Amino acid sequence: MQVLITGANGFVGGALVSALSGAGHTVVPTVRGAPSLPNQVLVGEIGPATDWDRALVGCEAVVHLAARVHVMRDEASDPLAEFRRVNSEGTLKLAREAAKAGVKRFVFISTIKVNGEGRDEPYRETDVPAPEDAYAVSKWEAEQGLHRIAQETGLEVVILRPPLVYGPGVKANFLRLIQTVARGWPLPLGAIRNRRSVLYLGNFVDAIRRCVEHPAAAGQTFLLDDGQAVSTPDLIRAVARAVGRPARLLAVPVGLIEFVGALLGMRAAVARLAGSLYVDSSAIRSRLGWVPPFSMEAGLAATVADRI
Q1: Catalytic residues, which ones?
Q2: Fewest CB atoms within 10 A around its CB: which of 239, 275, 296, 303?
Q3: Using a CB cutoff of 8 Å and minimum separation of 24, what contacts does 50-57 make?
């Protein structure tokens, strides 16, 4: 197929371009800024006025990766309005234009944060959505709008809600974790008992490809992960094995960590480290026959080899 990919020069987008091209598809990469890929189409800022006409010519499928992402310190005067402009209104403008251009399938990359945050039971597709922050709200609103467009036009919408994604090229908190463990610094997280899902980049792009190609994906929402939930200490131990260093974990009481985090204005960061967020990804496995091609250990080894 000819597949349009938004955000094609990003962390996930670059890997997806390679995966779909390698599978024999013709890829139309779109970017917002400076040229960086062959045959790319520059579309500028994504929003309710973006012109998609040239990019959509001949396309049979769209994978919409581009988004305004969650940041710890948002400087926008009205963050929710900005998230809605890009993630909700921009997504629905693209979907309407895609349906008008004869695109058959629209794969939307949402977020597990639509399900909620920090509960002790696994998240499933059947959960009542409970987005908490502006980013998750904007993604949930986009999902609802996409279902309406699908009903009106016949566009085959597929929604994927990934948890934290890691892999070669990862940045931000996961990269800092790798660097901290590699330097041998002790971490006061040994007493945490939680369960968290993560998703390796290679598994993510493989699942996206399956959702582009498989007839049974139409109209579905899927949660994704590597196939195992791990505690924060176990994840650190796995990273330590990948970098070839011992895991230096101190069993500091979780209550003390939370208290210090609150004093330092890091309550949300501590909640992510100490709380649970794991998914039941059995739906995509049973419906599409998808199995993650990489183990978490293999994914961490590839990530560390690229980042250290």
Answers
A1: 135
A2: 275
A3: 50/90, 50/93, 50/94, 52/93, 52/94, 52/97, 52/98, 52/101, 53/97, 53/101, 55/4, 55/28, 55/30, 56/4, 56/97, 56/98, 56/101, 56/103, 57/101
